[in-house]
Amino acid sequence: MNPNWDDMKVFLAVARLESLSAAGRELKVDPATVGRRVARFEEEMGAPLFAKSPQGYALTDAGQRLLAHAERAEQAMSGAMEELAGQAGNLSGTIRIGAPDGCANFLLPQVCNKIAEENPDLDIQIVALPRVFNLSKREADMAIGVSAPEASNRLTVQKITDYKLYLAAARSYLIQHPRIQELKDLRGHRMIGYIPDMIFDKELDYLAELGLDHVNLASNSVSVQFNAIRSGGGIGVVHGFAMANAPRLRKVLGDDISLTRSFYLIRHADDRRLERMNRFAAALSEGLKAEVSRLENWRKE
Questions:
Q1: Does one domain contain both 256 and 266?
Q2: Going by fewer Cβ within 10 Å, which terminus of the chain is more open, N or C?
């Protein structure tokens, strides 16, 4: 039994994506070819690695046992390629970052632009999703989270920085509606926030923390909420680092009402052995910390 590395890559793609078509898109081959390669690999391994159903491909017990070995082989191959390429030069290849859309929209473009300028052979992919990323399925090489998952032998977690959030509204909205002097005055105003049953992390339940339980205009996207507030639709919670993008936004109740949250960098534990990933993670963390500080101090009211 001597499986080749190409078959191992096909196995890993199907294991993570649980679909021949999705694996085919990632590997840039047609699904039928993926299916044949899986069947050949199972024959070489002498055991069924996947349970096939209309819902997709799920790992069998044998497949689960093989997965850990395949991931170690993948890491060893990546490490060998790094060493051959040399670690002192610029970063290269492709790195995918998963992030909540507030971070992805207002921070990552500037931070990643700077990293890309310094590493012209590096391709950076930013995946903005209003949910928690599944790193075990390699949806991303690393992710930024608003809460720290429990570290394990598969994940490492590192705090990047704190950031502030404020109640805010457009100046046009505040002029046209009753004055707000204390928190209870918000009861008569239009509130903008998350769709309650789509809040994917308790750290995002901002309005509940402020004792506000009704949302007049809701979205699962921070960017949609931000644009609704900026256009005069009502009052909502806005990241301090986003307010530089909307000079006509005003804090409601000033700095008296603010929330503090944190960003965390979440990585595959095995990637800590890869100098390329370590260098990128360090640049990303330092860049985010500096950008949050710069934008939060852009305007003092």
A1: no
A2: N
Clarify whether residues 36 and 168 are in a common domain: no
**CA distance to 112, 182, 223, 300, per residue, from 297 (Å):** 21, 25, 21, 7
- Alpha-carbon distance 224 to 215, whole Å? 14
Q: Which domain holds residue 40?
A: 5-85
pTM for the model stands at 0.72
Provide the residue type at 29 as one letter: V
Rounded Cα distance between 210 and 19, Å, is: 43
Check if the beta carbon of residue 192 is closer than 8 Å to that of residue 216. yes
Please count the other Cβ atoms lying within 10 Å of the Cβ belonging to residue 229. 27
Give CA–CA dist 5/97, Å, rounded. 25
Is the Cβ–Cβ distance between 158 and 145 less than 8 Å?
Answer: no
Compute how many other C-beta atoms are within 10 angstroms of the C-beta atom of residue 249: 23
Q: Are residues 166 and 254 both part of a single domain?
A: yes
Per-residue pLDDT tens digits for 178-226: 999 988 888 889 999 999 888 888 888 888 888 887 899 999 999 999 9
Using alpha carbons only, what angle is made at residue 229 by residues 223 and 235, rounded to the nearest 5 degrees?
Answer: 125
Please report the sign of the dihedral spanned by the C-alpha atoms of residue 5, residue 11, residue 15, residue 21.
Answer: positive
Residue 169's DSSP bridge partners are: 250
